[in-house]
């Protein structure tokens, strides 16, 4: 018997190349970086305290609007921004972790869980901040509804800060790990939107829509959400400003 032939495998490997596609649309990228600024700013201002708490509250309200935008955009946005594209069951995450499944673009099945945990933690922080108060000068616009609820959510608001820090640290560590160990840049595509992905002849990889029509739709959605968040700021009783 002769040695098994390897030519077909080699030919298949040579046939596989990479293509550059749009992965992250502009609205998703803007959401990401504005959220980064808001989270960092919120952490710094709460530690400074005093009059900086005015900024802390406003940054929290912007974060609330961002979370509302991401929720809707995850349902109606372009391909890789949609939850239905990257959220998979535990079995898919386990196969990816063991290297038994390939991943082309967007959040991988394992990273999707990390991203969702981070979004849920930040979202909870923004919502609980509406009811929080420091018993001195600062309170959220809905803190007046119930002293008991305000006290409970203020405690959870402070506790969740540590959850957020842990998840952010995990997120940054994962980006560094992929960069250093797998030589895969996850940060660049979130800046310019494009990524190099593997492609085989006859199986084109679909990119995300990022047309001006998509961007105008995102702007209209953002404006509607901003109006809703502004309305929340008017709910505090007269003479009991929330900032």
UniProtKB/TrEMBL annotation:
Report keywords, A-Z: Cell membrane, Membrane, Transmembrane, Transmembrane helix
Sorted alphabetically, which Pfam families does this protein's record hold? Answer: Ni_hydr_CYTB
Could you tell me the membrane topology recorded for this protein?
Answer: Multi-pass membrane protein
What region holds the Cytochrome b561 bacterial/Ni-hydrogenase domain? 23-193
In which broad location class does this protein mainly occur, judging by the first location in its UniProt entry? membrane
Q: Where in the cell is it found?
A: Cell membrane
Membrane-crossing ranges are 30-49, 55-76, 110-132, 162-180, 212-233
Question: Can the keyword Membrane be found in this entry's annotation?
Answer: yes
Q: Which GO terms describe its biological process?
A: respiratory electron transport chain
InterPro entries referenced in this protein's UniProt entry, alphabetically:
Cyt_b561_bac/Ni-Hgenase, Di-haem_cyt_TM, Hydrogenase_cytochrome
Query: Which GO MF terms are attached to this record?
Result: electron transfer activity; heme binding
The reply to whether Translocase figures as a keyword in the UniProt entry is no
Q: Which GO terms describe its cellular component?
A: plasma membrane
Q: Which domain of life is it from?
A: Bacteria
What this protein is called in its record is Cytochrome b
Q: Which organism is it from?
A: Pollutimonas bauzanensis
